[in-house]
Design brief:
By secondary structure, the chain is of the alpha+beta class. It folds into two domains: 3-120, no CATH class; 125-158. The protein has six helices and five strands; from the N terminus they run H-H-E-H-E-E-H-E-E-H-H. It has helices at residues 3-14, 17-23, 35-41, 74-85, 132-138, 142-156; strands spanning 24-32, 54-59, 64-69, 91-98, 110-117. The chain is globular and about 45 Å long. This is Protein ENHANCED DISEASE RESISTANCE 2 C-terminal domain-containing protein. It comes from Sphaeroforma arctica JP610. Pfam families: EDR2_C.
């Protein structure tokens, strides 16, 4: 990774939520699926998601986590509902990056990419999430939830 990208990554990791929200960029791309979903999602145009949706950031000495609340926007919530109903027909890619704004932060580099191919959401385990008030005050992490679920599962099995 280029030194400019490392410096930008370190600023992102150590910045406050306002800085992170202004720089967290994704490039979504629907590869295959329902026509309506493909039209609703649009083209693979870079988006500063955190300026449109509420994001929670958690940093420890072991990981850095970003959680996106798709219910924080009516439009995003409606789009998510549409996608969930058609998920088994979808293949989509998501690239994650930090926006560079001046010459010293360019060129931008992709931090990671993932692909979901026709996920079957009927077999997903439902997880009771904390209320919005609890999230706003404590900012629990997905790691915390997974640990909690894992501990409950281990303690309930004899």
């Amino acid at each position: 990774m280029a030194p400019e990208s490392i410096a930008l990554w370190e600023k992102f990791l150590n910045g406050d939520d306002s800085y992170r929200n202004s720089r967290f960029k994704v490039i979504p791309r629907v590869i295959e699926g329902n026509w309506l979903v493909m039209k609703a999602c649009g083209t693979s145009k870079p988006v500063l998601y955190a300026t449109k949706l509420t994001h929670y950031y958690r940093k420890t000495d072991r990981f850095f986590e970003i959680s996106c609340d798709t219910t924080s926007s009516k439009i995003a919530s409606s789009l998510a509902d549409l996608c969930v109903g058609k998920a088994s027909t979808l293949t989509f890619d998501m690239a994650i990056m930090i926006e560079g704004r001046d010459e010293s932060e360019l060129p931008e580099q992709i931090l990671g990419v993932f692909r979901m191919t026709k996920p079957d959401l009927k077999h997903c385990r439902k997880v009771l999430l904390p209320s919005k008030e609890d999230i706003a005050h404590s900012k629990p992490s997905l790691g915390d939830l997974m640990t909690s679920m894992s501990l409950k599962k281990r303690t309930s099995v004899k």
